[in-house]
Each structure stands twice: as C-alpha cells, then as structure tokens.
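User: Good morning. I'm curious how KG4 would be positioned relative to this chain. Could you predict the structure with it bound?
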Amino acid sequence: MTTILAIESSCDDTSAAVLRDRVVLSNVIASQKVHEQYGGVVPELASRAHQQNIIPVVDAAIKQAGIAKEEIDAVGFTRGPGLLGSLLVGVSFAKSFATAIDRPLIEVNHLQAHVLSHFIDRGEPMPQFPFICLLVSGGHTQILLLKDYFDIECLGTTIDDAAGEAIDKAAKIMDLGYPGGPVIDRLAKDGDANAYRFATPHIAGYDYSFSGIKTSFLYFLRDRLKEDPDFIEHHKADLCASIQKTIVDFLLKKVERAAIDHKVRQLAIAGGVSANSLLRSELQRICQKHHWQAFIPPFSFCTDNAAMVAIAAHFKYQRGEYADISLPPYTRS
Ligand code: KG4
Ligand code: ZN
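Assistant: Good morning! Here's the predicted structure, ligand included:
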C-alpha cells in the first residue's frame, strides 16, 4: 500500500491531495478569486494567495483523507512549468514537509500530471498504451503520443497562444470576465455554432496556431460594432457558439489525423479546456465514427488539481525516482 501527499501550486490554484495506491482519498483545491477583477492571473498576487492557502489546504487534505501524517510514504510536488513565485510556495512547502516527516520527495511535471490523471482509479476503464492525448489548458496545447507512463512523444504543439488562452481572450473581447472558458461554454449552449465563421490557419503537421483566430474574431467584431454598437450584446450566444466550434473543430481535426497516421485507436483529453462540453461531445462523436475509445476526465481532474500530481508521483515512487532537496522549480516545459 502506497500513500502519497501531493501539492500543486503552478498557477492560481492551491491544491493538496492524498492518494492511496491509485485511489483519491482527498483532493482539496483553493481557487484564487482575486484575479477575476484583473482579467487574468497576476503572478505577484498568486504567490501571496498560495502562501495564505497552502497550510489550510494541506491540513484539510490530510483530515479529509482520514489519515495520520505518519502514514504518508512520500511527498509529490509540481516542480514546473508554471509561475516562479507560485511554484516556489509549493516546492518549498513540500521540501519542508517531507523533511519534517522524514519521507522522500518526488518532483512532478505539471503537463505529465494532467495526462496521467487518466490512471487515477475511479472504477472506470483506463487507456492502454499506446494512446493519444490532447492536452489543452490555459498555458499549453499539445498532441501527445503515450507509449508508457513517462515515455511521451509530443507530436504537435501550438506555435503561439494556447487554446485556453485563445478562448479566454475571445471572452475578454466580449467582456465576459475571467476565466472566460466556462462562460463561453455556458452561453454557447443557446447559440448557433454556424452563425459566424472565423478563419483557421494552415499549419504544417500536428502543430497549432491560435493567435490568428483571436485576431480575426477581434476584427470581425470591430467591423460589426461600427454598424451596431450593441452587436455583442445582441448576438452573444451565437458568437460564443461560433468561436467555440472554430477552436474545437481545429483542435480535433489534427487529433483525428494523428490517430489515423499513428494507427492509435484510443483518444484522451486532459487539461482545463477538456472541461469544455463541445470538445467532450465531439471527441465522443469522432471516436464512435471510427470505433475508437474516448477517455474523458471527470471535471474535478480537468483543471489544476493535486490528485493528478499524486498519481504521477505514485508511478515515480514505484520506480524509486526521488528528488533531491536542492531542486529548484522550473518555469518552462
Ligand atoms: O489546466 P488549467 O486549469 O490551467 C492551466 O494549466 O492553464 O486550464 C485553465 C484553462 C483556462 O483557459 C480556462 O478558460 C479553460 O481552462 N477552461 C475552459 C472550460 N473550463 C476551463 N475552456 C473551455 N470550456 C470550459 N468549460
Ligand atoms: Zn494545468
């Protein structure tokens, strides 16, 4: 039996989780509301909020799990990529805690953690290697080919903005608040996804580019607003549905191509944008069409959380891959 305590603090969520073998005993997340008024994450405020949240969050995770500190076998933590000030809080806490309870430390890459969340035991089927995972978050957009837990080939990536960033920027243009992804998802349900078309760029291979979509959305609205200053208000649902469909179609077209080319019959999604309802239903549709299997994470494992860090740490613990106390965080992948 292995019990892991894991810490996640790479961006604006402070999270701690306890995992026993592959089962989540607790997964506590403190999201930081302070950034909403600024329309994006303010790094300085994020690190301060992590500092305030980290002890109560870890305390709650241990209490909810119903375990004693002595039962923890190792402490996992997100080492990067992420915001330096945010990471430093979680990394320093994990080091101190592991030292205090005299247990090994395990460093985890945040992106691997998102993908490995599919191996948390929820009593549901898990993907078998090899499979393809689309990792879509506020900071990353990658098509990954998983050959083993830590044998991951990046087939394609964005050359500029991440998909979540593009959605959040479109929401910002429409003054929908931050983060805009969930708002666009909700409003799109009442809209016509074919009302407007926004050009998607031709990028070679499995790479993506999202900055052009954002610009064409901006210019389209600028022109329409000249004719009708209330254009956004009058057509909000159609705008949300159309931009969401543009982004989801673009994402999945390349994933489908990658699966065909690599003869892979299992597709997974991970990261914050994998909470998007159209992305989830379209992935299902594509997989049904080809008789492939779709793996869609529960909402609690889509956005940043420590349970995904714990499962990655669990596999590293089994391999005896411990981290040195002197390891610094890293900000880029
Ligand atoms: O993985 P995550 O929590 O943080 C990063 O590592 O970036 O992802 C956050 C991103 C944000 O861009 C947010 O708008 C997006 O995930 N997101 C969504 C939805 N829920 C969260 N995007 C579209 N539809 C959603 N339902
Ligand atoms: Zn993330």
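The chain has ten helices and ten strands. The pocket of KG4 (ligand 1) is lined by residues 11, 137-139, 164, 167-168, 179-182, 185, 271-273, 275-276, 303-304 (CB under 6 Å).
Let me know if you'd like a different ligand tried.
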